[in-house]
Amino acid sequence: MADEKAPESKSAEKNNRDEVALELMKFVAVTTGYGKGTPAAGFGGKTGTRSPEEYADALLELFQRCREAVAQPVKGAAE
Fold this sequence. Notes:
Strand content: under 5%
Number of strands: 0
Number of helices: 2
Shape: elongated
Oligomer: single chain
Low-confidence stretches: none
Largest sheet: none
């Protein structure tokens, strides 16, 4: 019973994971130019610019991928 989490702590934990995922998304997007459509840091790919809607969709997709990565348990961590 002592290790059951209260509903507030589950919500806070989810919010914390989302904040970490958002920071990770911002880091990746700024560092790589993700979703802009122009090659960044010497990486080849599609050239040309994207519309604002396409750029927003790319960032939302990146955020979802970051949320999934943050939600995965760390290998070798004490559980």
